[in-house]
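Attaching the record inline, Q. Sequence:
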Amino acid sequence: MKKAFTLIELLVVIAIIAILAAILFPVFAQAKTAAKKTQALSSQKQISTGMFIYTSDYDDVYPRNDECQLFSSLNPALKTAALNSAAGQGCTPDGSTQFYNRVNHFSWQKWVMPYVKNVDMFFHPVKGRVGFATFGCPQDPWRSCGQMFGSYAINSAVTGALNTYDEAVGAASARIFRNSWTGGTQTALASPAQTALLLEANNPTTSIYPHGVINANNNDRVVTVYPAVLREHLINDVYNGNPDGQMGGTLDQSRLNAGGMTIGFADGSAKWLNINAIIGQTPTIAEYAPGTAMASGIAGSTQRLAVAPNLNLNYPLWGLTNQ
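Structure, as predicted:
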């Protein structure tokens, strides 16, 4: 006669399995996070290299063009003939067409796609196809506009940007020509190996970094774009429950990758940095814009200054160096 397990023996086995699961599941989770962190670093490295090669092919100048190209959507679902049947289709928010054929800083991936040749690489392995309905994109940026928000972002203060497509000559619209303070060339950067060109986006509503324009002529048609990151605003972006612009509270991990960001540098290299290290390498308002008070409650945006900022600082992460 076979001897069966007793109830006590079964309970002991179940308890042992539960203990092992409690020990191992966090380990598995950490391993999964580490793998995605490595994948993000690899993608950022390849994208940064693609941008570096672009400048080699275009006389050292970073891309910043704004145009409309039929069938240029990064989302294959938006490449049907019906959605690409007329000039300008997919480039204006008129209710039936969105921005899926627009080629500008909000779809900067198109600038570098000939060198990367892999749409999936532009999606962050942790954040994926982040998005929700925005102006001109009634579903979300990816489904409606073929745009990738919340994954990787380009530092448009380094590249500069244009907003010239379908803009009437002599129109009074502001910030049409957004010229980088460096001139928009790779060699103009004092320390390309230390200057952030691409970063993991910490804001799900955009694909550019920083989130605004700091310039001395904010309402002009032609403006100069300076490094638009301020320490206080960066803190507000990634910390919850902290006093305005002050360290404290808890990190918003949904805006980060394992407590930091993977950065693609202007020389084509990439590296993961802890968020507090990035904050420490970012100028304060008092340094960058003496006499300017921080606007209360700002999160995910950038202070616009009435005067040109102080560039005699040593924050090479943002292209500022006085050495």
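The mean pLDDT is 83. The longest helix spans residues 7-57.

More tomorrow.
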